[in-house]
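ugh ok fine here u go
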Amino acid sequence: MPRLYLSPPDLAGNELELLAEALASGWIAPLGPHVDAFEAEVGARVAMPYAVALSSGTAALHLALKVLDVGPGDEVWTATLTFAATANAVCYCGATPVFVDSERATWNLDPALLRDQLDAAAHAGKLPKAVIAVDLYGQCADLEPIAEACRRHGVVLIEDAAEALGATYRGRPAGSFGDLSILSFNGNKIITTSGGGMLLARVRAHAERARHLATQAREPAPHYEHREVGYNYRLSNMLAAIGRAQLRDLDRRVEKRRAIHDQYARALGDLPGWSFLTEAPHQRSTYWLTCATIDAAKARDTRDAIIRRLADRDIEARPVWKPMHLQPVFQHCRAIGGELASALFRDGICLPSGSQMTSADVERVVEAIRNGP
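structure:
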């Protein structure tokens, strides 16, 4: 049987048409009309007024921090349960990441813990320069109280919605809650440009500054004039054409991944020790990945035994993200809590969830889990 991957790219069907159009236009790289259109279409979908198409979600995070003048001596607080790119971008700027524990309902940054710690930091005169709230596995963080806590102390909120395009929170799209927000179009995301990302901004000046830095900080002169260090971070016209085709198919992909999650939950929900990550109140998750925790004290098989068994049957499954406060590279950084995120890493599993999976593919995973060695 063909290998089942966790979240492989899914072709929408009209990528070749838009790629041919890009080739015929002569706009190969860099930039071009598909980039402009992709920015406008994503901005409209996410309800953010300004968008800058970039080479990766990591580049978008880096530029979000750069336009805020984050630098050495600054702290940026973020979720500990996330992919390393979130914290890496903080380090690119010479700033220090501080890691905040998860809350149980969404596995995302704990808003009550954040509020209390921001209050304490304000009293001590040591507020962070920014907070990055991460939307994990297709579901938003509890963004309303997070945003309110940041507003109360004048701390800028960046929403890392790399894993949540197509999700909603209280009826608003993922990516629309930050002062700045980012998306990823990496090959494993719900839509892909093979590699790519987007920075979204509420303030025009932030978008213009990011666009300038992303194009090597070139000044408007007939020769190559540079007054500061810039970056080669812009998305090509060809990749933007792929992104436009993928974006038109986003709703189908969301519905398919939700159906995959539902099939897993029905088929495996009765297993002792299993608990699926589900939608919190006022949320609509894309279920970019279907995730569950497995209590080793109650379950027939441990999480790691199940991952090994699936691998033996050519099925990819993985643990959930290893928290940043447990990563050797960040062992010198402060963590606010971390016990829940550590437990989620110990017990959590991500199952194959690609939007091209058939019902029979899901059943193949289910049978491998239920039937034992």
